[in-house]
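Protein in question kept underneath.
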Amino acid sequence: MNPHKLLYYYNGTNLQAVRKGNWKLHIPRTVNDQPFWCKVGDKRKGFVNLSEYKLYNLKEDVSETKNLSLQYPK
């Protein structure tokens, strides 16, 4: 992946995350923001609210288990 290009992750028209190089930033979201996540009438099934930004170094943590957003706040 070109380290100067950004990759945007969307659910419908809602931005979910942004990736640049080895870094991926997840954007806070609620079930009410996600009309395309699940079939109509079943929005909550399989969805996890995200109340804070989450930052991952995919080179070192491909499974996205270590949130680094507090260590790298900018």
Observations:
- The first strand starts at residue 6 and ends at 11.
- Residues 6-57 form one domain.
